[in-house]
């Protein structure tokens, strides 16, 4: 087929002095920072649902997006054509990964069998494109929220028939993800929650969700899929409350139902905002549990109360994210998937390139700053010194579990009122600004 973006060349690194909007100013894929190339640090991914499918509608108006390659039908032929567009888009941006929901890549049929057949037909196309280009699937998932059957949840639906249908859909999505060599599979509970507790048996619903995930683990083993399972936290919208509300809630759920060894978290900035947390908080909670797996790279508007899924351009945000990732030693699984959409006013195909270029440059700048802060050592040194009383003496005994309240009382009688140091928050904020 002919090119979908004939007037757009492959995007090149031209450096910070370039005025060309279709060039990278900071992101140089082969540049080595902190021991790895930028390409390997980020493992950028294109979100199929936003880049290829989002119409840019909002609650007050229909879609504005211009997609000349799309004939507007929900046909398999149109879906195959769209797959070629996505791979051309990735090639011109130099992005190695993509991710999808099953219903993003293939149309839903009149029956489950027809939906499966449609999915197989498009996966045939994707498999060929991957072999031809070397592009990879970061993770797959199933859309258990769009169809009306899921209006009261999927794995947490009060209907056993809906639960069964969702299981059949996830079974197929897992199998095609495995077939495409997907490096992971994400569970996002878009409607796994409640609108009202008057009609909800919360314990039963959460028990059902756990049973569903145990079934997924069993099927993963059966088919030999070795990719990482992820859960993506989100507190609300569209539900009043969703059971995977934030990192801590997800980790508590996984521990309670003996699932923690099978799952890591896929964390999104916009969802952290809706949960009343910063992105760094959500990442640190997951990291402390050894459960930070992948990241949806976006941001939200704090003045708007819903999931705006904007492209990340805030250098403070990307610096904080990269500080956590570098502390972790980088991705061992997952990557930075641009779960972000252009604004409704940015409706031309070229705007997709501008948006991804801006996000990739923002993360490249954040990586360089984070690496410089770590190499400088003053920030880490201050934090280490602040907790140094736990490195020896009574502090070390506390951490080793060697003392109880009696010993703490005796220590306090002997040593009197504690002397503590300043937290120096403002000094450290100024220190970070030196690099930014």
* Mean residue pLDDT: 97
C-alpha end-to-end distance: 45 Å
Reported CATH architecture of the largest domain: Alpha-Beta Barrel
Shape: globular
How much is the radius of gyration in Å?
A: 24 Å
Structural class of the helices, strands and pairings? alpha/beta
CATH superfamily (homologous) name of the largest domain = Divalent-metal-dependent TIM barrel enzymes
CATH C-level label of the largest domain: Alpha Beta
Number of helices: 16
Low-pLDDT parts are none
What does this structure look like?
The structure is a single chain. The strands form four sheets. This protein has an eight-stranded parallel beta sheet. The mean pLDDT is 97. The relative contact order is 0.11. It has 16 helices and 14 strands. The protein has 436 residues and is an alpha/beta fold. It is 47% helix and 11% strand. α5 (112-133) packs parallel to α6 (160-179), α6 (160-179) runs parallel beside α7 and α11 (315-328) packs across α12 (349-376). The protein is globular and about 80 Å long. It folds into two domains: 12-376, Divalent-metal-dependent TIM barrel enzymes (TIM Barrel, Alpha-Beta Barrel), CATH 3.20.20.150; 389-435, no CATH class.
Indicate the topology:
Blueprint: E1 12-13, E2 23-24, E3 32-33, E4 36-37, H1 38-42, E5 44-47, H2 48-53, H3 76-93, E6 97-101, H4 102-105, H5 112-133, E7 136-141, H6 160-179, E8 184-187, E9 193-194, H7 202-223, E10 228-231, E11 241-242, H8 247-256, E12 263-268, H9 269-274, H10 279-288, E13 292-296, H11 315-328, E14 336-338, H12 349-376, H13 378-386, H14 393-399, H15 405-415, H16 425-435
Parallel strand pairs: 1-2, 5-6, 5-14, 6-7, 8-10, 10-12, 12-13, 13-14
Antiparallel strand pairs: 3-4, 9-11
């Amino acid at each position: 087929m002919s090119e979908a973006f004939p007037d757009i060349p492959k995007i090149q690194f031209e450096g910070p002095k370039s005025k060309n909007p279709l060039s990278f100013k900071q992101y140089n894929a082969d540049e080595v920072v902190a021991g790895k190339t930028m390409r390997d640090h980020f493992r950028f991914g294109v979100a199929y649902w936003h880049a290829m499918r989002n119409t840019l509608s909002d609650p007050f108006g229909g879609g504005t997006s211009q997609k000349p390659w799309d004939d507007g039908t929900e046909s398999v032929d149109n879906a195959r054509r769209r797959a070629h567009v996505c791979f051309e888009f990735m090639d011109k941006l130099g992005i190695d990964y993509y991710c999808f929901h099953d219903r993003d890549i293939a149309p839903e049929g009149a029956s489950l069998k027809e939906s499966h057949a449609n999915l197989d037909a498009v996966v045939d196309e994707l498999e060929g494109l991957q072999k031809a280009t070397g592009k990879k699937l970061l993770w797959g998932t199933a859309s258990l929220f769009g169809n009306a059957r899921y209006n009261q949840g999927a794995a947490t639906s009060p209907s056993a028939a809906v639960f069964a249908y969702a299981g059949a859909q996830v079974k197929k999505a897992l199998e095609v993800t495995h077939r495409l060599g997907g490096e992971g599979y994400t569970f996002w509970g878009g409607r796994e929650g409640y609108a009202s507790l008057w009609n909800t048996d919360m314990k039963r619903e959460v028990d059902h969700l756990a049973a569903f995930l145990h079934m997924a683990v069993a099927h993963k083993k059966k088919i030999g899929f070795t990719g990482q399972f992820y859960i993506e936290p989100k507190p609300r919208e569209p539900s009043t409350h969703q059971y995977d509300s934030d990192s801590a809630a997800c980790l508590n759920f996984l521990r309670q139902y003996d699932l923690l060894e099978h799952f890591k978290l896929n964390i999104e900035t916009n969802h952290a905002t809706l949960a009343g947390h910063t992105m760094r908080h959500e990442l640190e909670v997951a990291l402390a549990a050894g459960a930070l797996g992948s990241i949806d790279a976006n941001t939200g508007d704090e003045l708007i109360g819903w999931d705006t899924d904007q492209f990340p351009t805030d250098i403070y945000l990307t610096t904080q994210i990269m500080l956590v990732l570098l502390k972790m030693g980088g991705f061992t699984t997952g990557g930075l998937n641009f779960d972000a959409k252009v604004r409704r006013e940015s409706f031309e195909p070229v705007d997709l390139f501008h948006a991804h270029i801006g996000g990739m440059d923002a993360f490249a700048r954040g990586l360089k700053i984070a690496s410089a802060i770590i190499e400088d050592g003053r920030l880490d040194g201050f934090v280490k010194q602040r907790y140094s009383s736990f490195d020896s003496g009574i502090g070390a005994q506390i951490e080793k579990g060697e003392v109880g309240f009696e010993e703490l009382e005796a220590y306090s009688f002997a040593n009197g009122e504690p002397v503590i140091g300043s937290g120096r928050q403002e000094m450290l904020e100024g220190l970070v600004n030196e690099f930014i």
